[in-house]
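Protocol step 4 of 6: structure prediction from sequence.
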Amino acid sequence: MTDLGLRFTVDGPVARVVLDRPEVRNAQTPAMWSALADFGTSLPPEVRVVIVSGEGPSFSAGLDRRLIMGENDLGQEPLLTLGAKPTDEVLELIAKFQSGFSWLRRPEIVSIAAVQGHAVGAGFQLALACDLRVVTPDARFSMREPSLGLVPDLGGTKPLVELVGYSRALEICATSRWVEAAEAKELGLANVVVPADELEATVKDLSDALLGPLPGAIRETKALLLGAADRAYDDQLKAEREAQERRLKELLAALG
C-alpha cells in the first residue's frame, strides 16, 4: 500500500508496518489510519509480534497539516469540516480513526515501535499504542494536538497516563513540549535508547526474545497486565487464577 504511504509485510510470526512518506516526515492521514485498521483485522493468527517503524529520519511528524482545514491535494476531507456533521457521524468517524491504533494493544500480539527522530501528535500516539518502544538518541516526542486547539483522540491518553502518571501526562499534553530520548527513557516512555545504527538489530533481538515463550503464556500475561490498573488487588488475584487455569488446560490438551 505504498500509494497510501504505508508498507505492510508478514513473515511467519512477525508482521511489520512501515510508515513510508519520508518526504513529509511520515505525516499521517485518515486513509492511513483506515489501512492500519484493515491490516490489524486481517493479521494471520500465527502473528505474535508487530513492529512499527518509519522510513527516513523521522518516525512520524503527526497529522498531515494539509488535512486540518481548507482544500488539500490529498483527496481527503479536512478534519475541521467534521465539526459540521451530526454528532453521531463525527463520533463514528473518530472511532474508525482510533481503530487504526487500538489493535496494537490486543493481547495475542506484542507490538514494538522503533522510533527515530520526530514522533509528534499522531506519531506520538502511534508509538504509545505499541507495547514497547525502542528509540534512538535523536527521538523527540510531542503531543501537539492541544496547541492546535484539538485533543489527542487516537488512544494515546490512557497509555501516556499509565506510563508517566496523570500530572506529568497533563504537563506534556498541555504544554505540547518536546520530550527528548533521555527523558523518555527516564519517564518510562522508552524501554531502551540505542544508537541509530543499532536500532534494527536491537528490535530484532527483542522480537526474537518475545517469540521464545509459548504464545498462550504471553497472551494471557499481556491481558493480565493490561487490566491490572483497573482491578482491585483481590480481583487481580482472581484474574491470575483464571488465566493460569486456562493455560494449564491448554497445555494439557496440547500434550494429548
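Step 5 (inspection) to follow. Residues 6-212 form a domain with the 2-enoyl-CoA Hydratase; Chain A, domain 1 fold (CATH 3.90.226.10).
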